[in-house]
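To illustrate this point, we now present one chain and its tokenised fold:
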Amino acid sequence: MASAMFCRQCEQAARGVGCDVMGNCGKNPEVSALLDLMIFGLQGVALYASKARELGKTDEEVDRFMLDGLFTRVTNVNFDPDDIARRLQNCHRMKEKAKALYEDADRQQKGGDATQLTEEAANWQPAGDTRALIDQGRHHGIRTWHQDENILSTIEILIYGLLGMGAFAWHAAEMEKEDDGIYEFIHRSLAKTTDPQASLEDFVGLSLECGKWNLRTMELLYDGHAELLQAPEPMKVNLGTRGGKGIVVSGHDLPMLEEILKQSEGKGINVYTHGEMLPANGYPGLRKYPHFVGHFGTAWQNQARELPDFPGAIIFNTNCIQKPEASYTDRLFTWGEVAWPGIPHLEGYDFTPVIDKALALPDLPENPGQEILVGFGHEAVFKVAGTVVDAVKNGAVKHFFLIGGCDGAKTGRNYYTDLAEKVPKDCVILTLACGKNRFNRIEFGDIGGIPRLLDVGQCNDAYSAIRIAVALADAFQCEVNELPLSMILSWYEQKAHVILLTLLHLGIKGIRLGPSLPAYVTPAVLDVLVQNYDLGPITTPEQDLQHALGQ
């Protein structure tokens, strides 16, 4: 039976329940239906790919497409119905390829006909055009995943974890950093979501396993960036503009940024980052380009207010795109998994259209701005680990706060600004992801030469934050949960969600999450998280600080 739009995968879920008229992210019901159909199509791919893998058969194209499909379904990535429809046709092609792989292997093993899979997703045939695909998608919304609300909740927790991990794995695979275990888990766990006999406990276990494999995924992603661009180092970033032509790059993709820098070198164009690209300014392999001059703007949700003031060319390379304002659509491009109707989408790594557009547009003004520090990945912090440990032992540093995660437009996020400002001056703040934009322009000073605010990087760099916490625990010969460390996190979409699963997999307790808890977590499932992990919502900055500091 066809159903109306219903989506609750991000923190902006309407009324704290779900978006059923129009997505607060900007997604309309037609796009929502197509993205629901993408999950259904990927389940079909997973059913055959997991069976084939059990028989020793794999296919790189099928594996890579799974990452493409999962990334496409992440919040604020793809809003173009025709582009998603094209991807759905490719999804069916991958399902048929995985089917042939499985059936050939099964016939060879049995010496007879292959066992036929009867699951609906395994036998999906896509409609022929975008409108018909939308109609198909309306039959496969999240409420069709299970009728028991608590099991549905745990299926959503798993699938949204797979979306986030798929995005991280897509970035890692771009640099040829892959682990077959990641693909095996994705196929196996997504196939399990079609099993009507699977239990709540099954999906809880798979969600924690998702956290485990996400840790491996983030490790590969960090290694890829460090090998390609050298490990991040503390560097100052200018938040103003330099006189001349300009390109601003928004998103998360560092190899793509390097290509733009290579191709624009010597052409009189200055390149800036925007949004979650800010940490790119801490990589020596990118800062070696003299025309990589700084950062423009703040967090993703402010782009429609800020980008009209950028007269150069603009390109989005991953998630966090919003409906563009008409004033800059004529100089906007998308790349990678990102798409918006009517905006030119670039395939491959030829950025000539962006460069040509930048050269044809007016100059930016000479307007130097504030400078802030980035680049405190775990390798940079390890270099001063002795100083940090000594500062804790002699009482100069009393506590560490990890205040980070996704930013967003919903009210209530000023909490994180207020919290950071109220953190006592004998405490250090670690931060990462775009949530830091709430307070990263504040002057926090230092403690004996240790900056009180350490920017660890993107959401893609959560691995570094985990490595820092583990290193501190090793230095003090204790568990992470015994450290003077409090994690107070903000979330918006599925990459933050899967990072939380990784923290739970590691057994980290006492995390405070906000500005609201996920709409897809039922009271019964939340009770499990509270009982086992002491996971809870943020309250007020004053109360949460008192709790963290044992006051």
About this structure: The first helix runs from residue 29 to 54. The chain has 18 helices and 16 strands. The mean pLDDT is 96.
